[in-house]
Design a protein that fits this description.
Largest sheet: 5 strands, mixed
Strand content: 15-25%
Strand order of the largest sheet: 2-1-5-3-4
Order of helices and strands: EEHEHHEE
Mean pLDDT: 96
Radius of gyration: 12 Å
Helix content: 10-25%
Number of strands: 5
Low-confidence stretches: none
Shape: globular
């Protein structure tokens, strides 16, 4: 199992278990993580699963593809740690990943 911690804007943390090949978005939705809306259902056609991935895990992730970069242009609070949770597939290298949830989605 892969441990994933979501940090809410108020600092509260929720640590969840995921399986390899789960998408970060699905872990959030399946467990009712507040702030991850994923209105497009993972199609990379919105940015309502925007999150910030902390180091060192951000460096482990593959570079975002152009569709994700295009959608991130519309994300509230976008920065160098921004990713779309629908585009992050979990594996054992990401065990312990920490993800900050924005105060709002675009």
């Amino acid at each position: 199992m892969i441990e994933v911690t979501f940090i809410q804007p108020d600092g509260s943390r929720e640590t969840l278990q995921a399986k390899p090949n789960d998408r970060l978005m699905d872990v959030a939705l399946d467990n009712g993580v507040a702030g991850i809306k994923a209105q497009c259902g993972g199609g990379c056609t919105c940015c309502t699963c925007h999150c910030w991935v902390a180091e060192p895990w951000l460096s482990v992730l593959p570079e975002p593809h152009q569709d994700e970069l295009d959608m991130l242009e519309y994300a509230w609070g976008r920065n160098e740690h921004s990713r779309l949770a629908c585009q992050v597939t979990l594996d054992e290298d990401l065990h312990g990943i920490t993800v900050d949830v924005p105060a709002r989605q675009a």
